[in-house]
Automatic annotation (TrEMBL):
Subcellular location: Cytoplasm
Lineage: Bacteria, Bacillati, Chloroflexota, Ktedonobacteria, Thermogemmatisporales
Record note on cofactor: Binds 1 Fe(2+) ion per subunit.
Protein name: tRNA N6-adenosine threonylcarbamoyltransferase
GO cellular component: cytoplasm
Amino acid sequence: MLVLGIESSCDETGAAIVKDGRYLLANVVASQTEIHERYGGVVPEVASRQQLAAILPVIETALQQAHCRWEDIEAVAATYGPGLAGSLLVGLTVGKTLALARDLPFLGVNHLEAHIYANWLRQAPDTDLQTDASETESAYLPGDPLFPLICLVVSGAHSELVLMRDHTDYLLLGRTRDDAAGEAFDKVARILGLGYPGGPAIQRAARLAEEELRQQRLPVRNPYRLPRAWLRGTYDFSFSGLKTAMLHLAEGLVADQQPGRPLPSGGRQVSRYTTMGSEAARRGQVHIGLLAAGFQEAIVDVLAVKTRMAAQEYHVRQVLLAGGVAANVALRARLEEELTPLGIRLQYPPIEFCTDNAAMVAAAAFFHRLHGEQHDLDLDVEPNLSL
Ligand code: KG4
Ligand code: ZN
């Protein structure tokens, strides 16, 4: 079964064609990151306008890339929430319209569920569309994640720990009480003057600072020990205290380096280092990098330990990572460290399928379609949709 997936929940416009919920025939993403970089975050009105400009070319390109005709497509799926209302509306409306025009079943997909299903994606062995459907049109194939499993969904807007007992069956164990993990990365990157999106910027700054210490044969020990909110007895998360601690540390850092100057009101000021002499600037960058590393370590610590505890409590043999923050190398390594000694397998999607894309939307839709599900065409966007 070939599904055309459409994703437009935030600032990425995606179209993809996926066979049997797993095999990638085409995956096209138009990103607006460069536009929003100027503002230090996503501007909703700008995002929806860009979605509108990109959506049709992206779908056309996906069809060309897959070498398939409309007649080959058996269902159309689009994200209907959670996300930015204006952005969601573009992909959902186009998806429903295409389904109506082509007389195809339409499926609205939950964006969080799509992130989880990125773990089922793999390269197609060949682009032969004619293979016997009974061979691959199945809910369980070798190489698929094994149920029951625990999934940590960490994106720009969500941090959720989920028990998945079977396809499309979710039990929410915990969620963030304030900032999402990705949001914390983005806000802290802003405090440190590292730019947007924050996750990759923090990861890079932390790595460069640690390399610098290694080069100078200094111990790679982080002087910044940041607070962790464990919220014991629950699987909920909280990252706002960590963010505030970062703000205070960043202010103190500028004050230390520039005695006599008043404390800056916002963390953005830390980037003033770049205007100093080259040696001071370099030292400043190392400090910022170590702060970034301390922050990353704190957030990764809490995510990894709570995920491991959930995996133990529910006796699962497999843990999945999903969402933009799943691209974080430190998080993957730390989780591996927690889970491998227990014989629990960790799986995460390749980096391009961690952040927003439409292939994951098509994958999630396939497993709903297997049960004959479809949505009416009056389905509306749900910006606050949960799992
Ligand atoms: O899933 P996603 O593309 O969009 C949402 O559904 O929100 O996630 C975007 C988030 C951003 O907050 C971004 O900073 C974060 O994922 N992110 C990362 C990394 N790459 C992206 N966070 C930490 N480390 C990364 N390498
Ligand atoms: Zn996402």
